[in-house]
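Re: the 285-residue chain
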Amino acid sequence: MKIIIPTIGTRGDVQPYIALSLELLKDGHSVTLATHPCMRGLVESYGVSFAPMGPTGITSETLNLIPLSPQISSPNPLWEPRHRLTGYWFAPAPTTWTPPADLVVFLEAGELPVVVSLGAMALSGEDALESAQITLAAVKQAEVRAVIQGWDEAMKQLPLPSNVFHAGSIPHDWLLPRASGLVHHGGFGTTASGFQAGIPMLVIPHIIDQFIWGNKVAQLGVGPQPIPRPKLKAENMAEALRALQSPGMRRKAAELGTAIRAEPDGVAEAVRLIELAIVQKESKP
């Protein structure tokens, strides 16, 4: 069966659909993932066919799958039957990926670090430099180790202490289990990865649904209150970093992570529902 999967968003939004594509390919289907043109390299690096698409035509009258854990949000009883909650879809690291040797050395040299990963929000320019400076100051005040992803241009301008490692793109399924906490922008995919890893999170929302996920993290007790980017200071970030290390918050995050990892495979459930919908459609006269 030929299947086209349309989706939009940043890397964290698109990556779960790569996981779904891979599982459908394993079941013998022909799959094309349609999304932003800038995602071509990411999609094709997994061996998935790519097609460019704009922000239209992403819902179906037959089946709409929601890659969200019921631990995080229960299905709405008012939903039509075509809307189905499956559990999260996590894409594995590319098979050719290996961790950088210097990062491995850093991780093994001391306590588990906090990972700072602002995704598409870690842009270049003056805001990036200011954000990097705030983060380095907060890490120093909180006396934690940190792995910082992004802000490539800004980080080159700043001296890095020995307790900070500047990393490139690292698969979160490898990195986050080796961290004590996660600081991020509140994107859907990054939030899901933090929940699965079972580590506390500080969300620094910038736009749209990031504020929703920041509030959800706090409501679940697995992170402090989110700090919107305009309100971010070294002092309140340092306070939040210290909160990530609190035993109670770490316990709640670990329990949530254990529960999510024990759930049935969300990708497999999605594939089951897709194949069932295909059979039902083909059986209609």
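The chain has a mean pLDDT of 91.
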